[in-house]
Write a structure and sequence with these properties.
This protein is α/β, with parallel strands linked by helices. The protein contains nine helices and six strands, in the order H-E-H-E-H-E-H-H-E-H-E-H-H-H-E. A four-stranded parallel β-sheet has the order 3-4-5-6, with helices on both faces. Strands 1-2 form a two-stranded parallel ribbon. The chain is globular, with a radius of gyration of 18 Å. The two termini are about 25 Å apart.
């Protein structure tokens, strides 16, 4: 959704994913709208992250917008939650975004100015703001960690003319939520309890990222922006 919004608005966009076929197919589809390049990589490993950075640096000297959007979840009852459920989720959701941002500081700084800073946008979640209804303990901890990590990084990167902000999506049409939204009763309950009466649309999340990346977002730094229709207000 974010990549399509950026491509539609004229941004040369690089995308990555662990599944090369899916990544390539998405880039091919979005290339019918604008310019989209696929660089498949496993960002949860040091080698995969380094390979992605090297491939990107071969093509570009500057990076204007970095969207750290990869994520994983794990659910299990308390008392049965396995250690791997924390290791995998925290590695992908927290460590990888930090390490990737760190590895791309040079191109982020290359074109950054006081008026038009480099933008880093972290994908958090309303589950990092509210107490989730499910047993996804490591996921909520990782997303709360992302919100704080973005604030921490924002302070240390401000003098390099790089801003760091988080978005905190609520329910959207995604693979992570598919198992819930495909159930008509669960979907109706999610929509019925949302103050806006619906789940998010592609325009909602893409528009927020575009706003943060535009001149209108140049003075926003260290913020967490919920994109949830108001769900987070119901349980803070």
């Amino acid at each position: 959704m974010i990549a399509e919004g950026l491509v539609t608005n004229g941004v040369r966009t690089y995308i990555t994913a662990r599944k090369a076929d899916a990544c390539d197919a998405t880039a091919q589809r979005l290339s019918e709208i604008g310019e989209c390049i696929s660089i498949p990589a496993d960002m949860s490993t040091a080698d995969g992250l380094a390979a992605f950075v090297a491939a990107f640096r071969e093509r570009e000297d500057e990076l204007h917008i970095l969207c750290n959007n990869a994520g994983a979840a794990w659910g299990a009852p308390i008392g049965e939650f396995p250690e791997i459920g924390f290791d995998k989720v925290l590695d992908i959701n927290v460590k990888a975004p930090f390490m990737l941002t760190q590895a791309l500081l040079e191109p982020l700084s290359a074109a950054a100015t006081v008026e038009d800073p480099g933008r880093v946008i972290m994908t958090g979640s309303i589950d990092g703001i509210r107490v989730p209804v499910g047993d996804n303990f490591s996921y909520s901890a990782s997303k709360a960690g992302i919100h704080m990590l973005a604030r921490h990084m924002a302070k240390f990167l401000a003098d390099r003319n790089i801003t760091v902000n988080s978005i905190a999506p609520g329910p959207f049409e995604s693979k992570m939520m598919a198992y819930m939204l495909e159930d008509d009763k669960i979907r109706a309950n999610i929509e019925g309890t949302n103050p806006r009466g619906r789940i998010g649309s592609p325009e909602d999340v893409a528009g927020t990222v575009i706003w943060l990346s535009s001149r209108a977002g140049a003075y926003i730094n260290g913020a967490t922006v919920p994109i949830d229709g108001g769900i987070a207000m119901l349980n803070v």
